[in-house]
Write a structure and sequence with these properties.
heterotrimer, A alpha/beta, B alpha/beta, C mainly alpha, B: alpha/beta, five-stranded mixed beta sheet, 15 helices, 59% helix, elongated, C: mainly alpha, MetI-like fold, 0% strand, globular, binds adenosine-5'-triphosphate, binds iron/sulfur cluster, binds magnesium ion
Chain lengths: 334, 418, 340
């Protein structure tokens, strides 16, 4: 099913200025998010998922900065927006659900005030009553009783707070919702429930969802497409069935291999990725995965592969699937 | 549903581990980039402190005079020339210098209450010293006559009853010197110097020398009391946090009430019982800061105690004392250093405060607080009496607290709430 | 008012009692247990041992220490501190009652000034952390903090009182006006307003300006530091990031969301920093001859009036406990996590 493109990320890089030099947490990444899809973004801790998510809303703050690239949202480059336009963009066109529902709400503000504020910030003329009316439909839909509106965050359970966060993300009809490990801190049951709800909402409101998570099973269950990140690069991206059935990138293979599956009875088959995640201050040259890759070739440590489209439709960032005249030679000219 | 959950890496970022490989000198230089203004704050305050400490240790190198000695006329403004005293004799007198009319047989006149008294005495004793060196003995000892008015004095001079008349320019008024038949022998300055950079106080002491010697007092009180608080507060905090239990609870309750109690008032209570004296002041002030060390050290000990590596060491059977000093103390150290420098600043302020309300050191001590208190009486006439000691307290406190504040910004921003 | 809130209130108020007890006992033992004889130091060495003993007997200083302690606590509970030893031997209670309003008239405006000035500067510095303005504000706060408060007062006196001659040097009101001034509450400003005595009001306000400014400014240094540190913490919190992602403007996030949350730790810390306020008040009153309890304390120290000193310090202990109570209660009112 081909969909329209909602966001097109082109050559995006985010650099942290640290004490021992720049860290490229997101390194020349390009990909697209399509309207109405659920895109899962997975990868090891520290590979730059959150940074990428924040960059999509231009929420990167010093010491980090977006050092290159464009983010085309519905045909407009939001990198060219001024602060005022950006403010309007945030919340109204893209919104974000954060990981920790315990700390992501203002403890001094009631739930209804959060909702009203979110609306009034973007539509100053809307009255409190109107704003409340508008949000109450959504709130009920999310399973928060209207009697909870007058509560303070500390009076709600974690799952309830996360639903409020979700409500805040949806209340302005944003087209793109970025959920950064939105379900991680919840227990398994609540997590599954919230995930279900997110999918229903997608179907109902037609929003697009970027789901950042460590939970690969959750991605398998919910997402339409999946993107795999490794050390600041998107290394594989494609249709969920294709990727999960036939992972192409060695890292994806390892990642999926190390997921214990309920069907997998033979425990010995659990694959353990050798080596450590790379140090991003001095990332490995060439393909950043090469120190840990069992298929590494000479070229891998010297030249970086491109993200190339495979016949299956999957995009892969690996020399195994890309030709180079000197691919098999031991020495390469720079 | 089993899922793979990687450990979220919120521990030490890699770049910080890398930092340990950099040599300390390079780290120091690199730090300028990372910390921006705070690095400069540290540098500036360190230089200032170095200077202040040098002055405090060797005041005699810097102070031109003895801070307790009356070296000039009172209330001389900074840089102002001490008024000279004219020595008038009759035009036809044979005297060529003041020495000629200062012999045992001569008589000198001056006005009542004139600074001449002091000046003549000083000059004569200088002359005698010189004569003594030449082996002449005490040959100068003029008699003196005091007059109510200038007219009487001049009349006596004209009549030959006195050999010379000494008076300041002000006192002589518009007396015609040449035309009036008098001649001016010399101008007596009397005091050791004719002008003082920062002026003199109400009893003619040199302010510059006093504030320089005051540095020593301030540093002694500040540093010694801070060291005492440190030596008592840190081990108590370590032990209390480490042992826990009832001992900890009681000690914490006590320290907390001590902490809430206004330091100056407590110091007042202690000092008013103990009485004046530098040792007593130091005791009174050092009590105030013990709870601060205690609270911070105890809090950090509690949190470090439960960290994994300490647990691990403990389970391996490491001795408690070793855990305390190998693992916990190094963790607590940075905060303690910060508190120490703030502590010194506070101690100096408190000492000045105590002296200001009359509870500090013995009254003749060259101490900034005492000088400030005494200078208040001359507020209308002599601004320099309080300005310079005040500036010194501020400068020294500023250096210490700037050091503490910027170190805390660098090492641990959370500490700033102290 | 929820029942848990009521419970909090009651516990907090009850907790004040041990706090006062500890503070008051602390003073007792400092003044009694430390070496040094208050009576000797009061009477001086020339008075004979018999005479000293008469005074000791009169003050009950020859009783066993625990009996003394009991009497002392009883005096405090009944607010009856006995008479001063010097200068007319007025009852200390009356004297303090008269002087407390003067102290309050000085400290309350100073606190208001500091809260507004210090908190807004601190918040502004936190918002602009690591920018030049942040360093300037911080330098200012360290500087202000480093100036001894009485020196600040003396400088003001020289500049505004002597050189410019705009403001009166000391006291609470022109002595000319004071002869006819009827003071019922001892809050001069209040009294002047009640009696429609406009010249007196003007004079009282003029006399207030320098001391208040001195105390207020001196406290500002601490307030800037506290606010800035807590604001920085608060600005790092998740709900600020979440708010930003919702398109809330930075200004609103800083001054509405973060600042409101910062009040909670700040109020608590103010409770702990009463020390600075009280020390400041004592020194300010001394500098400006302001007839408050701080000045009373200093006067009596000079006279070596041991009973008066001890009682005044006990009153300060009360002060501390009450301010800390008030801060916690205020906290409870603004913090929904305590209120509900
Ligand atoms: N404040 C910072 N200063 C320096 N480097 C940082 C900072 N924050 C993040 N990084 C670096 O940026 C990289 C990407 O971080 P990011 O938070 O985006 O990872 P992530 O994939 O979201 O990890 P997780 O799964 O743990 O949330 C990491 O390697 C980290 O070291
Ligand atoms: S490019 Fe080479 S090293 Fe990188 S994943 Fe592919 S085969 Fe492995
Ligand atoms: Mg993340």
């Amino acid at each position: 099913m081909e969909r329209e493109t909602l966001v097109s990320v082109q050559d995006l890089s985010v650099t942290y200025q640290t004490r021992i030099g720049p860290v490229s947490a997101v390194d020349h990444v390009s990909f697209e998010i399509q309207k109405g899809e659920i895109l899962g973004l997975v990868g090891e801790s520290g590979c730059g998922k959150s940074t990428l998510g924040k960059a999509l809303m231009r929420l990167i703050e010093p010491p980090a900065e977006i050092s290159s690239g464009h983010i085309i949202f519905e045909g407009e480059d939001i990198m060219a927006y001024d602060e005022e336009k950006m403010r309007d963009f945030r919340g109204r066109r893209t919104s974000m659900i954060f990981q920790d529902p315990m700390t992501s709400l203002n403890p001094m503000q009631r739930v209804d005030d959060h909702l009203i504020e979110a609306i009034q910030v973007h539509e100053p003329k809307t009255s409190r009553e109107k704003a409340l009316e508008r949000s109450s439909v959504l709130i009920e839909r999310l399973g928060i009783g209207l009697n909870r509106l007058g509560s303070y965050p500390h009076q709600l359970s974690g799952g309830m707070r996360q639903r409020v966060m979700t409500g805040l993300g949806l209340v302005l009809n944003a087209q793109l919702i970025i959920a950064d490990e939105a379900t991680t801190s919840l227990d398994v049951i609540v997590e599954a429930k919230l995930a279900d709800q997110l999918r229903e909402i997608r179907d109902e409101f037609g929003v697009t969802l970027l789901m950042i998570t460590h939970n690969i099973a959750l991605v398998a269950e919910m997402a339409d497409r999946v993107a795999v990140m490794y050390a600041g690069h998107v290394v594989e991206m494609g249709d969920i069935y294709t990727v999960f059935e036939k992972p192409m990138h060695p890292y994806t293979q390892g990642l999926l291999g190390s997921v214990p599956s309920v069907e997998l009875n033979d425990r010995d088959e659990l694959f353990k990725m050798p080596g450590e995640p790379p140090n991003l201050t001095h990332p490995p040259t060439g393909c950043r995965f090469h120190p840990r890759c069992q298929y590494a070739m000479p070229i891998c440590s010297q030249l970086e592969p491109d993200l190339t489209k495979q016949p299956s439709g999957t995009l892969v960032h690996c020399w195994l699937y890309q030709d180079h005249p000197d691919k098999q030679k031991n020495t390469l000219k720079a | 549903m089993e899922t793979k959950r990687e450990v979220v890496s919120d521990s030490v970022p890699e770049w910080q581990l890398e930092l340990d490989k950099v040599g300390w000198l390079r780290r120091l230089l690199l730090a300028r980039k990372w910390y921006g203004g705070d690095w400069w704050f540290v540098l500036i305050s360190a230089i200032l402190l170095l200077f202040i400490i040098t002055v405090g240790v060797f005041p005699q190198w810097f102070a031109p005079f003895d801070p307790r000695e009356e070296v000039g006329p009172s209330l001389l403004a900074p840089g102002e020339e001490a008024p000279g005293l004219n020595v008038l004799v009759l035009q036809d007198s044979e005297a060529q210098a003041f020495a000629d009319i200062a012999t045992k047989t001569s008589t000198i006149g001056y006005l009542m209450g004139s600074p001449a008294t002091q000046t003549i005495r000083d000059t004569v004793s200088t002359l005698n010293e010189q004569a003594e060196e030449q082996g002449l003995g005490n040959i100068y000892q003029p008699r003196s006559t005091r007059f109510e008015t200038l007219e009487e004095g001049l009349a006596a001079l004209n009549a030959g009853e006195i050999d010379g008349f000494v008076g300041s320019e002000e006192e002589l008024g518009d007396t015609q010197i040449g035309a009036g038949g008098y001649k001016e022998l010399e101008i007596l300055s009397g005091s050791k110097a004719t002008s003082f950079v920062l002026g003199t106080n109400q009893i003619g002491q040199d302010i510059l020398s006093r504030i320089i010697w005051g540095t020593r007092i301030a540093l002694i009180v500040g540093l010694v009391s801070a060291v005492i608080s440190f030596v008592i507060g840190v081990p108590l905090g370590l032990i209390s946090g480490f042992i826990g239990g009832t001992f900890d609870r009681i000690l914490t309750l006590f320290m907390d009430s001590l902490y809430t109690f206004p330091g100056l008032i407590l110091a007042i209570a202690i000092a008013s019982v103990l009485g004046a004296g530098i040792g007593n002041i130091i005791v009174a002030i050092s009590v105030l800061y013990i709870p601060t060390y205690f609270r911070i050290v105890r809090g950090q000990t509690l949190s470090v105690k439960n960290e994994l590596y300490v647990e691990a060491a403990r389970s391996l059977g490491t001795k408690p004392s070793e855990i305390l000093f190998r693992y916990i103390f190094p963790n607590v150290l940075p905060s303690v250093v910060i508190i120490f420098s703030v502590n010194v600043a506070d101690a100096i302020l408190t000492e000045a405060g105590l002296s200001f309300i009359g509870l500090g050191l013995p009254p003749d001590t060259p101490d900034w607080g005492i000088d400030l208190a005494r200078g208040q009486d001359y507020l209308r006439r002599a601004w320099w009496l309080i300005t310079f000691p005040g500036v010194m307290v501020t400068l020294v406190t500023l250096s210490f607290s700037m050091l503490g504040e910027s170190l805390s910004e660098i090492l641990n921003p959370r500490l700033a709430e102290l | 008012m929820s029942s848990s809130f009521r419970k909090f209130l009651i516990t907090r108020i009850l907790l004040t009692i041990p706090m006062v007890l500890i503070l008051v006992s602390l003073i007792f033992f400092v003044m009694r247990v430390l070496p040094g004889d208050p009576i000797r130091s009061q009477l001086g060495p020339r008075v004979s041992e018999e005479q000293a003993d008469v005074l000791r007997e009169r003050l009950g200083l020859n009783d066993p220490i625990l009996v003394q302690y009991g009497n002392y606590l009883k005096d405090i509970v009944t607010f009856d501190f006995g008479n001063a030893l010097t200068q007319g031997e007025r009852p200390i209670k009356d004297e303090l009652g008269e002087r407390l309003p003067a102290t309050l008239e000085l400290t309350i405006p100073a606190m208001l000034f500091t809260s507004i000035f210090g908190v807004s500067l601190g918040a502004f510095a936190a918002k602009n952390r690591k920018k030049p303005i942040d360093y300037i504000i911080r330098l200012f706060s360290i500087f202000i903090y480093s100036i001894p408060i009485f020196f600040l007062g003396l400088i003001f006196q020289i500049v505004f009182g002597v050189q410019l001659d705009w403001l009166p040097l000391s006291g609470r009101m022109d002595s000319m006006l004071l002869t006819t001034f009827q003071s019922t509450t001892n809050f001069y400003v209040l009294d002047a307003i009640i009696s429609h005595n406009w010249p007196a009001l003007w004079s009282a306000v003029l006399h207030l300006i320098m001391p208040t400014l001195t105390l207020g400014l001196a406290l500002t240094g601490v307030f800037i530091r506290l606010t800035r540190a807590n604001m920085i913490e608060m600005l790092r919190s998740d709900f600020i990031a979440a708010g930003k992602a919702r398109g809330i403007s930075e200004k609103r996030l800083v001054y509405h969301h973060a600042l409101r949350n910062t009040f909670i730790p700040i109020l608590t810390l103010i409770g702990l920093q009463t020390a600075i306020l009280i020390a400041g008040a004592v020194l300010t009153e001394t500098t400006f001859s302001w007839p408050g309890i701080g000045r009373y304390l200093v006067e009596r120290i000079a006279l070596r009036d041991y009973t008066a000193v001890q009682s005044t310090i006990a009153v300060f202990a009360f002060f501390v406990a009450i301010i800390s109570l008030v801060m916690d209660l205020l906290n409870a009112v603004i913090d929904p996590r305590i209120r509900y």
